[in-house]
Queue: 2 jobs
Job 1
Amino acid sequence: MAASDPRQNLDLVRAVERIAAARRVAAFTGAGVSAESGVPTFRGGEGLWENHPLEEVASIQGWRRDPLRVWRFYEGRRGDLRRIRPNAGHYALAELERRIPEFSLITQNVDGLHILAGSQRVTPLHGDLWRVRCVRCNYAAEDRTHPLPELPPACPVCAAHLRPDIVWFGEAVPLYAEAERLASGADLLLVIGTSGHVYPAAGLVQAGLEAGAFMLEINPEQTALSRYAHLHLRGPSGEILPRLLEQLESLEGQGR
Ligand code: OAD
C-alpha cells in the first residue's frame, strides 16, 4: 500500500474512524499475518503444502497410515518456529487489544506468534504447534521440547502415541462455538491475511456479518471473502496494521 496513494489514504482514515468508534472488535487472522515473519502461507506460490501432500500430513487418515511421517512434518514446523519472531502486524494487534476494551483475536494460525507478541485474548481455532495430546486418553499439554527425543512421542499417562494438538482436515473444530460467539458479538470484524477458503473457519465472517458487523479486510490480494468486505485495505498486514495504530493514536491525541 503506497503511502502517497490518496484513495488508499482515505480508506485508511475511514478504517481508523471505524476502529475508534467500535465497541466490540473481533480480529480473525490467517497465515498471511505471519508471512512477514517468514512463515510460508498455505495457498501462495511458496505454499507449504506443495511439498507435503495435505492428505498425508494434515488428516486423520494420513496419521493412521504413517504417524512418523506426520510427526516429522510437524517437527520441521516446530523447528522453524524456533527461528521465527512476531512481526510488526502481530505487535500492532497486541497493542490494539490493550487500547480497545472488548477486543478478541481468533486465529487460524498454529504458530503461537500472536501470544509471543503479547496478545492475550486469543482463540487458536486450529490448535497450537507447541501442544500435544494423547490419541487414547485425555492427556493434553504444552510441550516445547525440540527436537522431541522420540517420534512419535509416547503419552506419559497411558503410553499411547501423542499427536500434535492441531485440528486436521475433516475434524471438528472444538473452539468454533466460542469463536462464533465472539464474531457474532462484534460490531467490527478485522479479517486479516486469510484466503477464506477453509470452512468452518471462514463461516465466522458470515456469522459476524449476519449479526450486523462492519467488515474490514486487510490483505494484499482479493480473497474469497473480499466481496463481503465493507472496506478493503490492500497491502501486507505488517505495514498496514502499524499505520492504522499510528493514526488511531493521533486521532486519540486530538481528543476524538
Ligand atoms: P492461506 O494460505 O489460504 O491464505 C493466506 C492469505 O494471506 C492469502 O489471502 C494471501 O493473499 C494473504 N497474505 C499473504 N501475504 C500477506 C501479508 N504480508 N499480509 C497480509 N496478508 C497476506 O492461509 P489461511 O487462510 O490461513 O488449516 O488458511 C486457512 C487454513 O488452511 C490454515 O489454518 C490451515 C490451512 O489448511 C489447518 O492447518 C487446519
Job 2
Amino acid sequence: MDEFEIIRRYFASRYPQRADVVLGVGDDGALTRLDADQQLVSATDSLVAGTHFSGELPADAIAHRSLAANLSDLAAMGAEPRWFLLALSLPEADAGWLQAFSRGLIALAEHHRVALIGGDTVRGPLAVTVTALGSVPAGHALRRDGANPGDAIYVSGSCGDAAWAWRALAGGQALPEDDPLYRRFAYPEPRVAEGCALRDLASAAIDISDGLHVDLERLLAASGAGAVCRADDLPLSSALLDRGGEESARYLALAGGDDYELCFTVPSARESQLLDLVAGWDCSVSRLGEVVTGRGLQWRLRGEPMSSPRPAFAHF
Ligand code: ADP
Ligand code: MG
C-alpha cells in the first residue's frame, strides 16, 4: 500500500458529509463555506506514541483520543465543530491497524458530525496530529480571559479517572476493556454540546487536558485574577475512589490531566440560570469556588489551606 492507496482506502470516504464542504480530500487544499456573521475557531493537538500514549493502545482509541482532544479545545471556545484535518506519521502501512484507526475516527466524527477535509500521510514514528475547525457567532466565543472577581468556578463531569488509567497502563497493568476508568482514558467524551450551551452564560472557560489545577491557573492568569476553591467539592467518581482512596483520587483530579472536562466561570447573578441549563445535560457540574481579586489559586480542604498540587505531566 502506498500513500495514495492509504488515503483512498481509509481517509477519503465513509466520513460524515457536510453541505458546507465545497471541496474535501483530494485537491491541494480543502474549500469550506462559512457564514459572514461567524468566526472560524481553529485548534490543533498532536499525540505522539511514547509521550501521550503507549503504542499498544488500540488503534481505534488512538484515533478517538486524537480527535477528541481537538473537539475538546473547540468545546472550550464554545465552538460548533465542523471540519478536521489529519496529519498521520506511521512506521508501516498495516491494514489491520489502519482499519481500526479509521473505524475509531469515523465513529467519533459521526457522533459530532465533523467532516474530514484533508491531511497528510508520511512514514515515521507513530504520531497523530489533528487540526479541528469550527465556528462561533462572531464575538461570542468563550475565552480564558473573561473571568471576574465574584464569579463562581465550575467543572463538568468528574476528574482524575483518565490519569488513574494512564498510570496503571504505564506501570504495565492490563486493564479490562470495559473498565470505566480505562474507557475515560481511551475514549474521552469531549463536552461539545455543553461548551456551545455555555456560550452566552460562562464568563471564561478552558478544557482540562493537563490537570484541573494548572489549567484553572491558566484561566485565572489570562483573566488577571485569583481564586479560592474547595478540594472537598472535587467531582471524584466512585470507580476512582474505589481504586486508591480519597487522597489519591483528589491528587489525580487536581494534577492528573487527560480529563477533557470543561472548567468555567459564571457570574454569580447567573448561577441559577446555569443550574436550569445543566439539568438537561448528560454530565453533572460541580461548583468548586470563587474568583477573587489578586493572583494565585488557593485550594482548601476542610477549611484548611492545602499546598498546591504539583502537576504529574510536563510537556518538556
Ligand atoms: P499534496 O502533496 O498536494 O500535499 P497529498 O498527496 O499529501 O497532497 O494528499 C493528497 C490529498 O489527500 C490532499 O487533499 C490531502 O489533504 C489528503 N490527505 C492526505 N493524507 C490524508 C489523511 N491522512 N487524511 C485525510 N486526508 C489526507
Ligand atoms: Mg501533502
